[in-house]
């Protein structure tokens, strides 16, 4: 399934993603059944813990690739997520090339990295157990969400082994002294997004971002190819509010 995403990105396709924050395999399965080509488990700000993340992977990772957004760029957490079958890793608060190098090292077996070999579940899910094959599976995306990361953007993008850069717009906006909710049209923020896309193109990386359906077409036109357009909590909240407003007039 990861290879299918890589093939689509190689043809310049846009992949739309849904974000999982609710600790339930059922809500995740509903989004997979809706047709999303990828999902992301949020272990940083969502309510999902490790055991529930494994249940979600069990439920849906044969339907579509499932990424994991880590709570932190921490080797043990990265290795657990990959051994359990995560298709990719999105690592938060990457500030420079050293952070990106540490991320890649945790995803790679020796001598290229420090990952411990034990593909208990990933070997079953993907039918491969050889270290070289297992190491090629995950799609690795450092997050760009600080002014410092923007300053180090070229150096981060040049780190061997990463596949894309993923913008965290709220933290990036705050770091640039801009408001939240994010104004995607604000010139300083727009300039930052354009720079991320430009650097990704130069380094043959996928540009990703957390956004909304309203901004998806605009961001795709700008050059983003991995766009998160919904999260499960917001879908329920907004749908409930809309239903109540409709019946209450």
TrEMBL record:
Entry coiled-coil feature ranges: none
GO cellular component: cytoplasm
Keyword terms of this UniProt record: Lyase, Metal-binding
SUPFAM superfamilies linked to this entry: Phosphoenolpyruvate/pyruvate domain
GO molecular function annotation: aldehyde-lyase activity; metal ion binding
Signal peptide: none
Residues annotated as domain HpcH/HpaI aldolase/citrate lyase: 19-230
Domain of life: Bacteria
InterPro entries cross-referenced by the UniProt entry: Aldolase/citrate-lyase_domain (IPR005000), HpcH-HpaI_aldolase (IPR050251), Pyrv/PenolPyrv_kinase-like_dom (IPR015813), Pyrv_kinase-like_dom_sf (IPR040442)
Similarity remark: Belongs to the HpcH/HpaI aldolase family.
PANTHER family cross-referenced by the UniProt entry: 2-KETO-3-DEOXY-L-RHAMNONATE ALDOLASE, PHOSPHOENOLPYRUVATE CARBOXYLASE FAMILY PROTEIN
Protein's name according to its UniProt entry: HpcH/HpaI aldolase
Biological source species: Chloroflexus aurantiacus (strain ATCC 29366 / DSM 635 / J-10-fl)
Lineage per the UniProt record: Bacteria, Bacillati, Chloroflexota, Chloroflexia, Chloroflexales
């Amino acid at each position: 399934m990861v290879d299918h995403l890589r093939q689509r990105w190689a043809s310049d396709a846009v992949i739309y993603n849904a974000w999982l924050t609710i600790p339930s395999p059922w809500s995740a399965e509903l989004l997979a059944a809706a047709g999303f080509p990828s999902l992301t488990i949020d272990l940083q700000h969502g309510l999902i813990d490790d055991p529930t993340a494994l249940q979600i992977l069990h439920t849906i990772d044969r339907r579509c690739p499932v990424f994991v957004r880590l709570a932190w760029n921490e080797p043990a957490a990265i290795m657990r997520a990959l051994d359990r079958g995560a298709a990719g890793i999105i690592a938060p608060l990457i500030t420079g090339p050293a952070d990106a190098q540490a991320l890649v090292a945790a995803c790679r077996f020796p001598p290229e990295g420090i990952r411990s070999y034990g593909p208990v579940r990933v070997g079953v899910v993907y039918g491969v157990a050889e270290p070289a094959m297992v190491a090629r599976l995950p799609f690795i995306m450092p997050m760009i969400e600080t002014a410092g990361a923007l300053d180090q953007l070229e150096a981060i993008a040049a780190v061997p082994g990463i596949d894309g850069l993923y913008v965290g717009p709220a933290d990036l906006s705050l770091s640039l002294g801009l408001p939240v909710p994010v104004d995607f049209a604000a010139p300083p923020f727009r300039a930052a997004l354009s720079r991320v896309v430009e650097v990704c193109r130069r380094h043959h990386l996928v540009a990703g971002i957390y956004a909304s359906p309203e901004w998806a077409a605009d961001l795709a036109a700008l050059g983003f190819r991995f766009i998160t357009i919904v999260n499960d909590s917001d879908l329920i909240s907004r749908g409930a509010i809309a239903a109540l407003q409709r019946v209450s007039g």
